Amino acid sequence: MKLRSLVPFRETGALTQPGFGLFGLHREIDRLFNEFAQVPGANGGSANLVPNIDISETDKAIEVSAEMPGLERKDVEISIEDDALTIRGEKKIEEDQKDKNVQHSERCYGVFMRVLQLPPGVDPSSVQAMMSNGVLKITIPKPAKPEPKKIEVKEAPKETTKKAA
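Predicted structure:
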């Protein structure tokens, strides 16, 4: 293998092609780290464990759906603190697989966590979560928007001063 094939844009003889620059270098480093993190079987099969989510909004609520195949309700924990929704979970290795000599595995196991910023004023007691067929659905009622209030400006009370006799 040629060392030249590992260096970006080496085939033209320069590392600084148009559009590469500092931001291009940053994107390339991010891409390399993402590829490294997505290697199947890395860290005992824990790559790609972060659940994919959809966030939608209606007039009255924010709805979050997360794909969690192979998980049950007891494997998932949801909390709200400081206007942040945290979804934690753990996908454990199946008991019958521990006794087997697995030749190849692309399934992911381990602990994951997703944190989503919520609008200020969400009431944690009104949030509902349901799980069905490996899909977690969280419904977060929107906080009531404060109505603008007109404040009347009043006359300051006049000070009564007594003259010294």
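Summary: The CA atoms of residues 39 and 87 lie 24 Å apart.
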